[in-house]
Amino acid sequence: MPIRMDRRLSLAALAITGLALGGCATSGLFHDVPDETTPQPAYPNVGEVPPNRPQPPLTAEEQARAEAELKALAASRRKGVERSLEADQ
With 90 as the cut, is the pLDDT of residue 80 above it? Predict the structure, then answer.
């Protein structure tokens, strides 16, 4: 008798699993997967050297000015934080 019950339970579990997997396959989980016949984009040539820029990113003067502005901004923020910490005490 126990063998029949085990067999029935295993068949029921197999049927439920099959229905669940069948439902997942038709639920549209794979709707973004391209067909095998869709042409794939070409890989970039990693050995190719990019062309030179038309002009340098920053001149030495522009870089020095940018660094000075950033240092001034950092100093003003640091002073603001110090003032707020002093006010809290």
Answer: yes
